[in-house]
């Protein structure tokens, strides 16, 4: 079998390096966001700090003797959220100066047009199309991107076998949370509601957050 025909080796984005001018200040800022502190190691002139956003597979590292990047030179780092309004509210409650919600006039991340950012949500309320932004104390900039439903083929299939008992329990939970929606809304396919609920729960959302995500998906689907 040629190299081109072999399955590729797993490669998972693990860490993004940031340049900061004050390590303690940067650590305090990201800890205030609720990000998990993984390490803070000092050895002579070296110091490395690693933090991980809630339920993220990738982390950030900054410190002394780590990178030649200038403080604040990282721009447009993306944080995927399934509820942009809730994410903004959480950041504001933590004292973070976060922008109003906006969308891109020419589509996500397209800065080629004049005044690329337009105030307000995407007019069609599409997944991937609505954003907010904030910066850390050095000016490293972050984008919150609302992703309520991922496009087909955008998630890797897990090689881990599904635990049948756990799946049955999750399906039972989904059925219980779908019941109030079914009684209060018009005729619809149950599986259209189940899919975003299950996806949200498997990605770490609470039952209440998953129900909200399923409701938003149904609103989007029925408005098309």
CATH superfamily of the largest domain: 2,3-Dihydroxybiphenyl 1,2-Dioxygenase, domain 1
Radius of gyration: 20 Å
Helical run tally: 5
Major β-sheet annotation? 4 strands, mixed
> What pattern of helices and strands is seen along the backbone?
EHEEEEHEEEEHHH
Stretches where pLDDT falls below 50 for ≥5 residues?
A: none
Mean pLDDT, to the nearest integer, reads: 91
Distance between the termini: 46 Å
Q: What fold name goes in the CATH topology slot of the largest domain?
A: 2,3-Dihydroxybiphenyl 1,2-Dioxygenase, domain 1
Summed up, the domain count is 3
Instruction: Give me the count of strands.
Output: 9
Strand content: 15-25%
Shape: globular
How helix-rich are the residues, as a percent range? 25-40%
Within the largest sheet, what's the order of strands? 1-4-3-2
CATH class of the largest domain: Alpha Beta
Structural class: alpha/beta
How does CATH name the architecture of the largest domain? Roll
Question: Can you characterise this structure?
Answer:
With 224 residues, this protein is an alpha/beta fold. It has three domains: 3-64, 2,3-Dihydroxybiphenyl 1,2-Dioxygenase, domain 1 (Roll); 77-146, 2,3-Dihydroxybiphenyl 1,2-Dioxygenase, domain 1 (Roll), CATH 3.10.180.10; 164-223. The protein is built from five helices and nine strands, in the order βαββββαββββααα. The strands form three sheets. Strands 1-4-3-2 form a four-stranded mixed β-sheet, covered by helices on one side. A three-stranded mixed β-sheet has the order 5-9-8. Strands 6-7 form a two-stranded antiparallel sheet. Helix 3 packs across helix 4 (190-202) and helix 4 (190-202) crosses helix 5.
């Amino acid at each position: 079998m040629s190299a081109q025909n072999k399955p590729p080796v797993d490669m998972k984005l693990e860490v993004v390096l940031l340049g900061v001018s004050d390590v303690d200040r940067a650590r305090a800022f990201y800890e205030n966001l609720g990000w998990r502190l993984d390490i803070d190691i000092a050895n002579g002139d070296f110091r490395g700090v690693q933090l991980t956003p809630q339920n993220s597979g990738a982390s950030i590292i900054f410190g002394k003797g780590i990178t030649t990047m200038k403080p604040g030179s990282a721009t447009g780092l993306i944080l995927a959220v399934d509820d942009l309004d809730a994410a903004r509210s959480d950041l504001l409650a933590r004292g973070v100066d976060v922008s109003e919600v906006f969308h891109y006039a020419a589509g996500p991340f397209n800065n080629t047009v004049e005044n690329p950012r337009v105030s307000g949500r995407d007019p069609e309320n599409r997944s991937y199309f609505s954003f907010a932004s904030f910066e850390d104390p050095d000016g490293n900039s972050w984008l919150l991107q609302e992703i309520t439903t991922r496009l087909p083929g955008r998630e890797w299939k897990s090689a881990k076998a599904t635990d049948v008992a756990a799946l049955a329990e999750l399906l039972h939970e989904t059925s219980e949370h779908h019941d109030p929606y079914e009684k209060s809304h018009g005729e619809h396919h149950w599986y259209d509601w189940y899919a975003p609920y299950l996806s949200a729960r498997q990605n770490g959302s609470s039952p209440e957050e998953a129900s909200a995500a399923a409701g938003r998906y149904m609103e989007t689907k029925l408005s098309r």
